[in-house]
Amino acid sequence: MEGVITKSTGSWYEVAGDDGIIHKARIKGKFRLDEGKNTNPVAVGDRVEFDIDTEGNSTVIHKLLPRKNYIIRKPSNLSRQEHVIAANLDQVLILATLAFPRTSQGFIDRILVTAEAYEIPAVIAFNKIDLYDDDLAVQSKDLCAMYEDIGYHCIEISIKKAVHFEEVVDLLLHKTTLITGHSGVGKTTLLNRLLPELHLKTGSISDYSSKGKHTTTFAEMHSLNKDTSVIDTPGIKDFGLIDMEREEVSHYFPEMRELLGQCKFTNCLHIDEPGCAVLEAIQSGKIHPSRYKSYLSIIEEEDTHR
Question: In sequence order, what are the residues at sequence separation of 6 or more whose Cβ sits closer than 8 angstroms to the Cβ of residue 237?
């Protein structure tokens, strides 16, 4: 039988079978991918083959079917292992905020780079605009304008106050969407608005650290209708990128990708090389300095892993 992984707790999985039944399943034997590089052999969104042992009353996953795509991260920047967050996605919704807990641009850009690497469209939603003062409101609009210029769809919302909420719903329809972001940015509140019957518990924000408290402890897929699904994930503190060659990092910054082949040197890293089209674009204002700062941060991280 075949089905889709809709929930992962690490040792057990829930599989929505093509028979319309939800099966609680485990993995057969030493099921591993990529010689053990992954911390999880299958992920939410994966299509799998499974068998039902009617005598033992158990369901066993024995084969992972080909993936259309997936989002992967290292649990920490020091880790050599990789964690597949979700698979077979139509888009990623990055939920961020400039209010508590503030989302750094570097965090957003790392997720965007990963989405670009796996050719998954990404949307950025800045939540909690009802809490913004005048300065934060200006910052938010400037960030949205910057990302829109690059080619990313960006919206400003308040899930709690239902500001522009219908626009979020329209973005989700007829797609499978991974919702990701720090703890406390509003992922659970969003799900409760989309699916009130879930009655999911929301967490408070720590005054000491201004960080959200984790309320989701495992990845889970929720269906809004027959062709619309959202995948909720635990709040991510850091987003360690998978290992990639330094020379290819710029390929995943769309504004830099447009300039490929225009630098004097074919192996240009866009740091201090003469005749660099990217550095010229920064000087002329065509590439935003904060995006270049994110690029350099990723390059430096790759250097430390060599």
Answer: 182, 183, 211
Closest CA to 123 of 159, 83, 90, 99: 90
Phi and psi, residue 127, nearest 5°: -95, 170
d(CA 112, CA 253): 8
Write down the pLDDT at residue 32: 55
SS3 content of the chain, % helix, strand, coil (to 5): 30, 25, 45
Alpha carbons 33 and 45: distance in angstroms, whole number: 16
Residue 104 and residue 112 in contact, taking contact as beta carbons nearer than 8 Å:
no
Of residues 226, 236, 232, 286, the one with CA closest to residue 256: 286
Backbone angles phi, psi at 53, to 5 degrees: -90, 100
Residues 163, 157 contacting (CB under 8 angstroms): yes
**Which DSSP symbol is given to 164?**
T
Under DSSP, the state recorded for 282 is H
Report the alpha-carbon angle 137-143-145, nearest 5: 100
Residue 134 · residue 140 · CB < 8 Å = no
Condensed to tens digits (0 to 9), the pLDDT of residues 229-253 reads 999 987 665 666 776 888 999 999 9
Distance CA 287, CA 94 (A): 22
C-alpha span between 100 and 205 (Å, rounded):
7
Chain centroid to CA 296: 21
Of the candidates 43, 53, 64, which has an alpha carbon nearest to the alpha carbon of residue 23?
53
Could you read off the pLDDT of 12-57 as tens digits, one per residue? 899 999 988 999 999 877 665 544 567 788 999 999 999 987 766 7
Which residue carries 């997720």 as its tokens?
111
- Helix, strand or coil, per DSSP, at residue 243: coil
- What is the rounded distance in angstroms from the CA atom of residue 14 to the CA atom of residue 8? 7
**CA separation for the pair 219, 197 (Å, rounded):** 18
